[in-house]
Write a structure and sequence with these properties.
The complex is a heterodimer of chains A (about 110) and B (about 110). By secondary structure, chain A is mainly β. Chain A has no helices and 11 strands. Chain B has no helices and 11 strands. In chain B, strands 2, 4, 5, 9, 10 and 11 form a 6-stranded mixed sheet that branches. Chain B has a 5-stranded antiparallel sheet with strand order 1-3-8-7-6, with no helix packed on it. Classes of the chains: A mainly beta (about 110), B mainly beta (about 110).
Chain lengths: ~110, ~110
């Protein structure tokens, strides 16, 4: 158990809908990363937050957004869902926002868009 | 060409064999990570290294910064080692990870 929690574990929804994925980092970790794992693209970095502020952006679609709250949990919002958004979404946390520090992964949320 | 390349993509071996998975990267990195993903999907961080060698139980990870190459070795492999092994390079100030394609390892009893 990494100490990172993600909810829900599974999510099934329809095209055009909007969903919210939630991540709680390990106690004391200030940084949260979001990653997408799809069959055709593999694992890709989406976005990073550090202590409430957006720190880095990767291949995140405009239909997706994220935020980190004062209690450091983070939410990833996916809207106008398409079939191709079906994937495993992981968050990871680390103590710092930069430098040499390990990332600890949550169990993931499996999103299926029908 | 991907920034992080792994080989082989698939590896099947018998229990007890010595396993090597290779990872090459083409960009400057601050650290190289080895991750393990079991069929259930969860990802576990095995190693993070920026130089030399690290060992944890039967697992050994090495990195050669000059050659931009890292290897993950498993000694006395066991069926429970069957999983996908992923190398990832952390780069940039934010230390975002860039992932290899993964190596699917199957250890037969």
């Amino acid at each position: 158990d990494s100490g990172v929690t993600q909810t829900p574990k599974h999510l099934i929804t329809a095209t055009g809908q909007r969903v919210t994925l939630r991540c709680s980092p390990r106690s004391g970790d200030l940084s949260v990363y979001w990653y997408q794992q799809s069959l055709d693209q593999g694992l890709q970095f989406l976005i990073q937050y550090y202590n409430g502020e957006e720190r880095a952006k990767g291949n995140i679609l405009e239909r997706f957004s994220a935020q980190q709250f004062p209690d450091l949990h983070s939410e990833l919002n996916l809207s106008s869902l398409e079939l191709g958004d079906s994937a495993l979404y992981f968050c990871a946390s680390s103590p710092r926002g930069s430098g040499y520090n390990e990332q600890f992964f949550g169990p993931g949320t499996r999103l299926t868009v029908l | 060409k991907n920034e992080v390349e792994q080989s082989p993509q698939n590896l099947t071996a018998q229990e007890g064999e010595f396993i090597t998975i290779n990872c090459s990267y083409s960009v400057g990195i601050s650290a190289l990570h080895w991750l393990q993903q079991h069929p259930g999907g969860g990802i576990v961080s095995l190693f993070m290294l920026s130089s030399g060698k690290k060992k944890h139980g039967r697992l050994i990870a090495t990195i050669n910064i000059q050659e931009k190459h890292s290897s993950l070795h498993i000694t006395a492999s066991h069926p429970r080692d069957s999983a996908v092994y992923i190398c990832a390079a952390s780069k940039g100030g934010a230390q975002k990870l860039v992932f290899g394609q993964g190596t699917r390892l199957t250890i037969n009893p």
